[in-house]
UniProtKB/TrEMBL annotation:
<feature type="domain" description="VTT">
    <location>
        <begin position="32"/>
        <end position="153"/>
    </location>
</feature>
<dbReference type="GO" id="GO:0005886">
    <property type="term" value="C:plasma membrane"/>
</dbReference>
<keyword id="KW-1133">Transmembrane helix</keyword>
<dbReference type="InterPro" id="IPR051311">
    <property type="entry name" value="DedA_domain"/>
</dbReference>
<keyword id="KW-1003">Cell membrane</keyword>
<dbReference type="Pfam" id="PF09335">
    <property type="entry name" value="VTT_dom"/>
</dbReference>
<feature type="transmembrane region" description="Helical">
    <location>
        <begin position="52"/>
        <end position="73"/>
    </location>
</feature>
<keyword id="KW-0812">Transmembrane</keyword>
<keyword id="KW-0472">Membrane</keyword>
<feature type="transmembrane region" description="Helical">
    <location>
        <begin position="167"/>
        <end position="189"/>
    </location>
</feature>
<protein>
    <recommendedName>
        <fullName>VTT domain-containing protein</fullName>
    </recommendedName>
</protein>
<feature type="transmembrane region" description="Helical">
    <location>
        <begin position="15"/>
        <end position="40"/>
    </location>
</feature>
<dbReference type="InterPro" id="IPR032816">
    <property type="entry name" value="VTT_dom"/>
</dbReference>
<feature type="transmembrane region" description="Helical">
    <location>
        <begin position="110"/>
        <end position="131"/>
    </location>
</feature>
<feature type="transmembrane region" description="Helical">
    <location>
        <begin position="138"/>
        <end position="161"/>
    </location>
</feature>
Amino acid sequence: MFIEHIQPLIVQHGYWAVFLVVMLESAGVPLPGETVLLLGAGYAGATGNLDIAWVIAAAAAGAIIGDNIGFWIGRTFGANLLLRYGKFIHLPEARLKLGQYLFERHGGKIVFFGRFVAFLRVLAALLAGVNKYNWGKFVFFNASGGVIWAVVMGAGAYFFGDAMHRVSGPLGIVALVIVVGGVVGAMILMRREEKKMERELADVG
């Protein structure tokens, strides 16, 4: 799903688009939930047609509900389901093993911080269920991570959208380049860290 298809979805369906896409991604469907949150919040800042508080609330609710769906799918069907069908949701066996290794070592931290890491965002809830993690603890870490993620990402995109609406010309272009460069740099760093973890897993295994 490309940005040109996402933006009309947000314009037409607003908060429901943010909620549903984030929820489905959190439940294990490979959709760009974080991108929808960022675009929705940026749209709110640039146009004022959406209330940023409701955009953040929709994303947080979608994250929490979707993760709980993923948790119970993992608990009900176990690791065999992920091993068999993981490739269809961009979770090959190597990445699944990496996630299991990290979860066994860090537990609640993975549930909380997984919301901020692309491949863990889809995987953390499923792994928590597969590993029979305590549901009460899962809800605490998951809800905390979901709310903070929605506030940080949503507020950041909102203020950027508002600034871009107010500032035009060369200064606005420079600001856009800086933000895009920062996002790309962060993605590269996260992928490098993931590679390091994969090598660590290979050494352990």
